[in-house]
Design a protein that fits this description.
- With 299 residues, the chain is mainly α.
- It has two domains: 89 residues, Orthogonal Bundle (DNA polymerase, domain 1); 180 residues, Intergrase catalytic core (hpI Integrase, Chain A).
- Helices cover 58% and strands 4% of the residues.
- It contains 13 helices and three strands, in the order H-H-H-H-H-H-H-E-E-E-H-H-H-H-H-H.
- A hairpin with a 5-residue loop joins strand 2 and strand 3.
- Helix 10 packs across helix 13.
- The chain is elongated, with a radius of gyration of 23 Å.
- Pfam families: Phage_int_SAM_1, Phage_integrase.
Length: 299
């Protein structure tokens, strides 16, 4: 039965990759979670047919005692629900024992965001008398203008940009496509980069990716992170407040603080559920409380 379970796991991850369009990182995460289950069942001598709700609850308790974080356990519950639902629908499994599993409640962790003044300083930090500085300015302008995930930004190709309409075609999580607008400043620096710098950087291995490193390859996440940290250090933003998605989080928070509708922000960010976007309303409320405490005469 252990071999059957391993076979089901491989069939499931193949389905999630080819039919559902999930990324390799997500598929690998599913596989790791399910291999933990397979190892646990083998150790306990429990067959797949005998798995019930209590079995899965004991499995989660075991992982909690082993030190698995709450966020990882929440993801694992989601994996188990999806896996057993797949078995019921596609493998004629008689029941979904994970259906009633409770997801551990996440502690609300608010991401750090930069003020509008800090964002402006960060974006204006590159030395635009240098080709790399022009690229970096275009990179930061576009990221803050659109709120893209870093992976989405670095995956942009020349055909994804419409400079006449000032919009991007973005392929996000789950291969979902969305159209995201950008403003005048991002247009100006992106156009300048594409005309003056990208042809200089481009080489035989550039493909049609927009953002390139100086050796002509696609700019990597590591390369982007070095760029972001360099300019944050230059303008005096504490290192602990800067992380790859800081401009995405700042983008969303600043829009809401200026009165943008939550559903519009959800669409721009590419969130499938508005619940994910609602964390930024907490940031907005937090900021309002800070302002109230600072300026109200009786606070």
């Amino acid at each position: 039965m252990a071999d059957d379970l391993l076979s089901y796991i491989e069939d499931f991850v193949s389905y999630m990759r080819s039919e559902r369009g999930f990324s390799e990182n997500t598929v690998a995460s599913y596989r790791r979670d399910l291999l933990k289950l397979a190892a646990y069942l083998a150790k306990k001598g429990i067959s797949l047919d005998d798995v019930n709700l209590e079995t899965l609850e004991d499995f989660l308790k075991f992982l909690r005692k082993s030190g698995l974080k709450k966020t990882s356990r929440s993801r694992l519950v989601s994996t188990l629900r999806t896996f057993f639902k797949y078995l019921v629908v596609y493998e004629n499994f008689p029941k979904n024992p994970a259906e009633l599993l409770e997801i551990p409640r996440k502690d609300l962790k608010l991401p750090n965001v930069l003020s509008e003044e800090e964002v402006r300083a960060l974006i204006e930090a590159p030395d635009t008398s240098e080709p790399a500085g022009i690229r970096d300015r275009a990179l930061l302008e576009l990221l803050y203008a659109t709120g893209l995930r870093v992976s989405e930004l670095l995956s942009l190709r020349l055909g994804d940009v419409d400079l006449d309409e000032d919009v991007l075609r973005v392929i996000g999580k789950g291969n979902k496509e969305r159209v995201v607008p950008f403003g005048e400043a991002a247009h100006l620096w992106l156009e300048r980069y594409l005309i003056e710098v990208r042809p200089e950087f481009a080489g035989s291995r550039s493909g049609d990716y927009i953002f390139l490193n100086q050796r002509g390859g696609k700019l990597s996440r590591t390369g982007f992170w070095k760029i972001l940290r360099k300019y944050a250090l230059k303008v005096g933003i504490e290192e602990g407040r800067v992380y790859p998605h800081v401009l995405r989080h700042s983008f969303a928070t600043h829009l809401l603080m200026r009165g943008c509708d939550l559903r519009v922000v959800q669409e721009l960010l590419g969130h499938s559920s508005v619940t994910t976007t609602q964390i930024y309303t907490h940031l907005d409320i937090k900021r309002l409380k800070e302002v109230h405490r600072k300026y109200h005469p009786r606070s």
